[in-house]
Amino acid sequence: MNQTRILCVDDERNVLRSLERIFLDDDYLIMTAGSGEEGLELLGEGPQVQVVISDYRMPGMNGVDFLREVFRRHPETIRIVLSGYADTAAVVAAINDGKIYKFIPKPWNDDELRVTVVKALEHYESHSRNLQLTEELRLRNEQLGELNANLERLVGERTSELMLQNRALLHARNVLDHLPVGVLGINSDNEVLQVNQEAALMLGLTPESIVGRNLCEALPPEICHLARSISEGSCGREPVSINGSLLQVRGSTLDEDGQEGIILTLIRAGQE
Asked: Could you say which of 208, 213, 256, 267 would form a disulfide bridge with 218 (CB–CB 3.0 to 4.6 Å)?
């Protein structure tokens, strides 16, 4: 951590020496300047100065004008002005402008001045932490904004992809329903997952009464027996009589993209 830096500005050398003595026992780096102009030069040369203590009455640039310039160039620096009682009204007016942290009358009390500096440094640290937290919050908000934008983009892309898939599935379903042959899809757990309109018509059932049910519960025994035979690889084509109609049933196994099961196609006799 950098050492605390305090700049004391006064055109009287003995005043500067007195200020230096006050802080001999403190771990501060005390810098001194004999004028406001010199003080501004020192502030611009090195690391951040936490506190500036300036006399009010100085030739050329007075203390309040100097500290106002300090505020303009280094707003984080805490500004304290020393002044005789005769200058009180002018200094108070400057304090009311919000440019000066504290007014300390001359002659000052050493202990009170040290306490004032300690509180000024606490104020500086608190303000610095707030600025840091504000900056961190700003950066996090920016990151959150970017994440939200990316999320919205991904959601949009995914939504478009799902809409495309849904259109493809709807198209595929419409194609199946318009085929002149019946189609049944059965998974490896013997559940009927798909049935087109022609298959339901051939079986004398509705798609709603078939889909999602066990094939032996939903379909005629002849179809159930044939589906089991096909799943065991013992048969791929066999005629069956359903509702007085002779149907040619063809089957094939499905094992692709993690999907397992069988596909049955039903063709009316004489339609092949």
From this structure: 213
Query: Which pLDDT belongs to residue 237?
Result: 60
We report the CATH number of the domain holding residue 201 as 3.30.450.20
* Residue keyed to tokens 């104020």: 123
Percent of the chain having pLDDT more than 70? 91
Query: In terms of Cα–Cα distance, which of 38, 3, 33, 4 is closest to 16?
Result: 33
Question: pLDDT-based confidence at 87, cuts 50/70/90?
Answer: low
More confident residue, 259 or 130: 130
Print the domain residue range for 240.
Answer: 179-268
Asked whether residue 112 falls in the same domain as residue 214, the answer is: no
* Alpha carbons 247 and 184: distance in angstroms, whole number: 14
* Domain assignment present for 189: yes
Q: Are residues 85 and 198 in the same domain?
A: no
Angle at which helices 36-45 and 63-73 cross, to 10°:
20
